[in-house]
Amino acid sequence: MRKRILITGASGFTGKHAVAHFMKKDYEVTAAMRKEMSCEGASVVSCDLENEDQVMKLVEDANPHYILHLAGTKIMWVAHGNSLYLTLTAM
């Protein structure tokens, strides 16, 4: 029986390499990303990780043995007057 892995952030630098690695190891890979892109050999799924219902459906459908969470956030510094604020925005 092939092991199943769900990889979030699969369109990013690290995610692409993780998908390739697990494909070579003969895993059944579900590649989750914000926008569907080609990911040879993997099942590609578009998912908004800020939407709990979408995430629950993703996990239910993929039924993975493992989850590799590589989706990142965008860190942005915002200047306001003489102050600098750190904001975190989910990507």
Describe this structure in words.
The protein is an alpha/beta fold and about 90 residues long. It is built from two helices and six strands, in the order E-H-E-E-H-E-E-E. Strand 1, helix 1 and strand 2 form a beta-alpha-beta unit. The N and C termini lie far apart (about 35 Å).
Top keywords for this entry?
elongated, 2 helices, about 40% strand, four-stranded parallel sheet, about 90 residues
Largest sheet: 4 strands, parallel
According to DSSP, the number of beta strands is 6
Order of helices and strands: EHEEHEEE
**Widest sheet: strand ordering:** 3-2-1-4
The percent of residues in helical segments reads: 25-40%
Taken from the alpha-carbon principal axes, the silhouette is elongated
Number of helices: 2
Instruction: Enumerate the spans where pLDDT stays under 50 for 5 or more consecutive residues.
Output: none
Q: What class would the helix/strand composition place it in? A: alpha/beta
**Mean pLDDT, as a whole number?**
83
Radius of gyration: 16 Å
Span between termini: 34 Å
Strand content: 35-45%
How are the secondary structure elements laid out?
Elements (H helix, E strand, L loop, with lengths): L3 E5 L4 H12 L3 E6 L9 E4 L5 H11 L3 E4 L3 E8 L2 E8 L1
